[in-house]
Specification:
The protein is α+β, with helices and mostly antiparallel strands. The chain has a single domain, classed as Heat Shock Protein 90 (2-Layer Sandwich), CATH 3.30.565. The protein contains 5 helices and 4 strands. The chain has a 4-stranded antiparallel beta sheet, covered by helices on one side. Helix 2 runs antiparallel to helix 5. The longest helix has 22 residues. The two termini are 21 Å apart.
């Protein structure tokens, strides 16, 4: 994704934010849902990332959005993952984020990164 965005002329800070948001989402799908799929839609002034899985769903989205909250199992934490920063970082590095989830069916996360966002200066 980074290479494609670079070729399309996106600013390095926009690419960095998109890459971090995407990475955090990918790790969450591997840890909690054993995989999923990602779709990236590139517009002139924004990048949309859609992550879908058929995992267990998120029981309490508000709680899951808190820094440090994690439902990762001990074996995942022993590998250095599951620190409870995935969803908070996805929100932090995107300009818009929406979560649709259903217990036992899975989760879809929609993120938008804007090329003219004040977050690009961070």
């Amino acid at each position: 994704m980074k290479r494609e965005l670079r070729q399309l002329g996106f600013d390095a800070n926009v690419i960095r934010r998109a890459a971090i948001a995407m990475y955090e989402g990918e790790i969450n799908m591997v840890i909690h849902a054993e995989g999923g799929e990602a779709e990236v839609i590139v517009g002139e002034d924004q990048i949309e990332i859609i992550l879908r899985d058929e995992g267990p769903g998120i029981a309490n989205v508000e709680l899951a959005m808190k820094d440090g909250f994690s439902t990762a199992q001990d074996n995942i934490r022993a590998l250095g993952f599951g620190a409870g920063m995935g969803l908070p970082n996805m929100k932090r590095y995107s300009d818009e984020m929406r979560i649709e989830t259903e217990i036992g069916k899975g989760t879809t996360v929609y993120m938008t990164i804007l090329s003219d966002s004040p977050k690009n200066a961070l």
